[in-house]
Structure formats: structure tokens, C-alpha cells
Amino acid sequence: MWKWFHQLASPPHFFRLASVLIPWLAWPGYALIAYGTFAGLFVAPPDYQQSDAFRIIYVHVPAAYLSMMAYMIMAIAGGIGLIWRMKLAHAVAASAAPIGASFTFLALASGSVWGRPMWGTWWEWGDPRLMSELLMLFLYIGYMALRSAIDDTTKADKASAVLALVGAVNVPVIHYSVEWWSSLHQGATLIREGGPAMDAAMLYPLLANILGFSLVFGALLLRRVRSEVLRREGRTRWVRELVLAPGDSA
Amino acid sequence: MKNGSARTPGLLDGFVATLRRDLLLAWKRPGDVLNPLFFFAMVCTLFPLATGPSVQQLQFAAPGVLWVAALLAMLLSLNSLFLADHEDGSLEQLLVSPQPLVVLALGKTFAHWLTNGLPLVVLSPLVAVAFRLPGATIQVLMLTLLLGTISLSLIGSIGAALTVGLHRGTALLSLLVLPLAMPVLIFGTRTVSLAAAGDGYAAGVLALAAYALGALSLAPYATAAALRVSNE
């Protein structure tokens, strides 16, 4: 176990492993998204209340789920980097932030598009989920701003890891405070997406998309970490050998 | 620190020494304490000027206005929490001192609250009266500000420690601290609004107290860690 952990922490080893893993994550991911999106848009029956508007969940739910997931990965990776001084973990945290912020933005944008026909407004201040996502986006922005403000990579890694951990402790509090805030505001939770009883023809494409998005997220993350590692290790011998190696398309 | 005592200084000595030093510094430079207070009063004046002098509207907006102004005033003062110490090198003395940095950071944060949070609480009824809030609501407002500014000082100290010594630190500090401070703002304003409407508000006060306790037990460690990172 520990040997494996240490091996993983070695940048050249990780680089090779990531290069092998990326296609194995990406292609099944694309296939699942293709199935989920097709089945979700054309096969699944329209919702009896929301008719075709509900179909946005096939993008919205995976994006919202990944926005949380990416923050968790970022915080955990930051914690690992702080505690075990593992440089690779910091590279993971640095790479997860922009992807997570993009998914958060996608979740917000798709939620807003969904809200237009459902609530008659692009932005409903009273909805706790929208507000939580917006605050999530602000947390990501703060994290990335801190990272870019510090020139020294090691220092930026540690400072942003502290911030990510503080943010991770705060996320549940933010979530519940926003929920409490909106519960006093009159019932804005008009329609719960999907509801508990969801038809299988609707559910399977959604599950496929959630899994597909996650796999593609994993591939994107590994790609970013790979280039982040190259950037950070630019002066080492293995990178020079890798770049100068003839015929290798890495 | 006191000289001539045979015993080694304990945890409390470090805390008290930091606290006394910072209070003394604040006493010698009253502008640092007064400016955020003036800022608070000015921001509160902006709202009636911007929205019009309708009493009903002002009463309705008062909890939000006062809380947002207090939050911004706290942010303004946080910027200087570690800045002077960083510039004159005394921050490094804190880092290498045999006392645990957590305790010293807590002492500095407590001094910040005493010189910036508490004056806001004391000043708030004046502004609240101008906004025509009834007496009972003002008491709740002061209670929420009392609990809320403790949390804001503690959370803000993390942000201040992370950004100390950075260029463009002020704007960055706001970006870092504001999202973390949202729950405090939500609990604070809603509690006052509930009290103003005559509803039960105990839940909000308890939530604020819980948040302050949680911040008190966790934030100093994050601040200490951040100070170490910033001074590497």
C-alpha cells in the first residue's frame, strides 16, 4: 500500500500511468454521454408537469454533482499535499480548480435556463440550490485568485490548500444557512427535479450521463495534472528526455 | 513581557502579551480603529441617499444595510491585521517564539475584535435609531453583531494571514473572505428581520453562537498555518 502511494507520488511514474489511463477514462465516458444524451433527449418520455423542459437535468445534475465533487477532490488533495508534503497532490488540487469552476458555471447556467420556463425568471434568488452553487463558484474564484496572486509555486500550493480546507469545512454551513434563509422566504422550491419516483426511461440516461461526466472529468483532470507536472518538473532530466525522445507523441 | 519572574511563561502569558501589545498599538494609532467606524457610518448613510428617505423602506432594509456595512467595515480593518507586523519584522518574531503560534494568533485576532468588532457593536444602535428600528429589535441587532463580528474576526484572520505580504492583497482578501462570511451575514440579517417582524428568532442567535464557537476552535489553527506559509 505505502509503496504504491510513494510510487504514485513520483512524477515520472504518475505521468506514464496517467497517459495510459486517460483514453480508458475518456472513451467510455464519451460513449456514456452519447447514449445518455441521446436517450435523454429523444427516448425518455416528456415529464407530465414540466414536459420537455425537464430534459436539462441530463446536463444540469451531472454538472452540479461534479462541481461539489471537484471541490472535495481539491480540498482532499490539498490536505494530502500539506500533511505528507506530496507535490503531486498539490498539482492535482491546482488542476481540479478550473475544471470544478467550469462545471459550477455550467450547473448555474443550465439551472438558469431551466428556471426560465419553470419559474418564469432567469434567476430566482429564493432557490437555495442556485444560491449554494453561486457561493460555490465564489469559493472557486477566491481559490484561483489566491493561487494566481502568489508567484512561488510551493507557497501558492500550501496557501491555497489551507484555503481549500477552510472552504471545505464551510461548505456544509453555507449550504444549510442558505437553506434556512430561503425557507423563511416563502416556498420557492416549486418543483423538485425529477421527484422520488422517476421512470426508468428517464433515470437510466441520467445515471449514464452522471457516470459519463465523471469519467470525462477524470480524464480532463488527469490531462491537466499531466501538463501541470510537466510545467513544474520542466527542469528535471526525465522531462527533457521525454520531450527530446524521437517519435513519441506525449 | 514581564521580566524577573522565575517561572517560564505559560500559554496565557503569550496570549495576554500579544493582546496587550496590539491594544497598545491601536491606542497609539487611533486612526486604524476610527477609520473603519467612519466607513461603517458612511456606508449606512449611502443607502438612504440611494433609495430615498421613505421610513417604511428604511426600516425594512435596516438589518441588511447595517449588517452589510458592518461586514465591509470588518473587511477593511482586516487588511492591516498582520500587515504592520509583517513590514517591521515582528511577525517573524512571533513565528520563531517558543509560544505556540496558535495562541499568539488568537491573541492578535482577539485584539482585532476588541478594537474593530466591539466598537461596531457599540456604534450600531446609533445608526439603528436613525433607521427608526424599535428598541427591542436594536437589542437583537446588537446581539447578532456581537456574535457575528467574533466569527468575522476569526474567519477574516485566516484570509489576512493568507494574503499578508502579497501585492493586490486588499482585493484578494475580500474575494477570499466574503464567500466564507456569507453564513454569518445570512444568520445575522435574518435573525434581526425575524425579530423585527415579531417572530421567534432564537434559532438564528443559536446558529450565530454555534458558528462563533466553531470558528473560535478551528480558525486559529488555520490562521497559524497560513502565517507559516506566508512567511516561508
Can you give a write-up of this model?
The complex is a heterodimer of chains A (250) and B (232). With 250 residues, chain A is mainly alpha-helical. Chain A is built from eight helices and no strands. Chain A has one domain. The relative contact order of chain A is 0.18. Chain B has 232 residues and is mainly α. In chain B, helix 1 (11-28) packs across helix 6. Chain B starts with 10 loop residues before the first helix and ends with a helix. The mean pLDDT of chain B is 90. The interface between A and B is medium-sized, with 28 and 32 residues.
Which descriptors would you attach to this protein?
heterodimer, A: 250 residues, mainly alpha
Largest sheet of chain B: none
Q: Output the structural class of chain A.
A: mainly alpha
Average pLDDT over all residues of chain A:
85
What is the element string of chain A, with H for helices and E for strands?
HHHHHHHH
Uncertain segments of chain A are 186-191
Fraction in beta strands of chain B: under 5%
**How many structural domains can be distinguished in the coordinates of chain B?**
1
Distance between the termini of chain B: 26 Å
Shape of chain A: globular
The level of helicity of chain A is: over 70%
* Separation of the first and last Cα atoms of chain A: 29 Å
Write down the overall mean pLDDT of chain B. 90
Largest sheet of chain A: none
Number of helices of chain B: 9
The percentage helix of chain B is over 70%
Report the count of strand segments of chain A.
0
Number of helical runs of chain A? 8
Runs of chain B with pLDDT <50, length 5+? Answer: none
Estimated radius of gyration of chain A = 20 Å
Structural class assignment of chain B: mainly alpha
For the secondary structure, the number of strands of chain B is 0
